[in-house]
Design a protein that fits this description.
With about 450 residues, this protein is of the alpha/beta class. It has helices at about 35-45, 55-60, 120-145, 205-225, 230-245, 250-255, 270-290, 290-300, 305-315, 320-335, and strands at about 10, 15, 85-90, 95-105, 110-115, 160-165, 170-175, 195, 360, 380.
Amino acid sequence: MRNCLLTCLLLALFLSACDRSTSPPPPLDRQPPTANASDLLDQLDDVTIPPRDLADLTERLTGSGPIPRTAVTTPTSYKVGDIATFWYKDQDAGQNVTVEAQLRYRSAELYMWFETGMRVRDDELTEAVNFLEAQLLPTHRAFFGEENRPGIDGDPRVHILHLEEIGGIAAAYFNSADGYVQAVNPYSNEREILYISMKSRDLGSDEYFGSVAQEMQHLIHQNTDPNEAAWLNEGMSELSLHLNGLEPNREADYAAHTDIQLTNLTYDPDLVSAHYAAAFLFTNYFREQYGEAATQALNRDPGDGLQGFDHLLAALGTGLSADDFFKNWLVANYLVSIERPTGVWGYETVDVPALELAEDHRRFPAEVSGSVAQYGADFIRLRGDEPLRLNFTGSQRVPLLATSAHSGSAFWSTLPADKSDMTLTGRFDLTPLTSATLSFWIWFDIEEG
């Protein structure tokens, strides 16, 4: 958990911290952080948040009694031609609906299901499974680890459900709740399963393999580090394409939107591709700097998001923090974008197109004011023949949350996290009482979806 404002000053080349919007920037907070605030930030950085267990939560919160972690003791023996009913999430309707699908291929690794009525050419299916079994699955398991095998259904195979369409902007998805029995999630398919939309794509195309690669990485990550920060999880999924020779090709989206928060993935249709690109570039930059073994260790580290980077950078003896690494990454993006990479500030395997500049100044003096997202950057180009003096003033403090304590100076917060279970417990002797009441004030800001 961190929320410090990072500003990268590169006097010869660029400066971050401007806004292209017409709205006035927020007022500056010139007061330095207190010692208590700095200590609190350090404590939050060190917190390792436990992952949630939906079965355990169901047992504790509903009083259901013990819930099995597997759906069957003997796996179902499916054969080609079988028809089964599946749940899936209709993204347009926002509802769980059922669909019938036919098994068209079965091997020691895969079940390939297709929505009934879909036309599937045998030669395309053969070509697709050959790539999945010979290239994609071995590459994923060697680099990222293994999914839960044999898993909830007692079967080591991965199910891939091909649908006419899913709705919305989704091309594919993985649902971690399928790893729980229907007593926990009534819409669970109780399988290790991926959902692939075949709308506007061909079986065996790069787009198809890219979708399978992304969701397969999520399936594995659910087993190796189930509450990894969503942005880094997506960065690893984008990296999985790169490792299989299936390039994400989203770098131009990041170049046009550098002022997005790396560490806060949003699904705004206009920005989601830029978020994926930023996460991929950041993750791949780490892989290129420190190697595949370090990236594999990062993928398994119990620390979430930047905390994992802090852990690995320390273990490698780099002398860098995650914040330092982030600054180097910004420099690398700019230098690669102007085709002048040097030393650690560059990439070996990807290119970054020209970044969209927030400002481009040739005449001086010049004054610029604005705001920049946490862990984002705006780039300003300063061009001239004479040396320049740069004065920068920025806020030294930012709030962790958009609220303050109702009374006193402290409150308990769950902190932003994905697929996690945070608890607050205390012991109280109520034996002298006939009744007891707990009164508390609550504030919440919960994302939709």
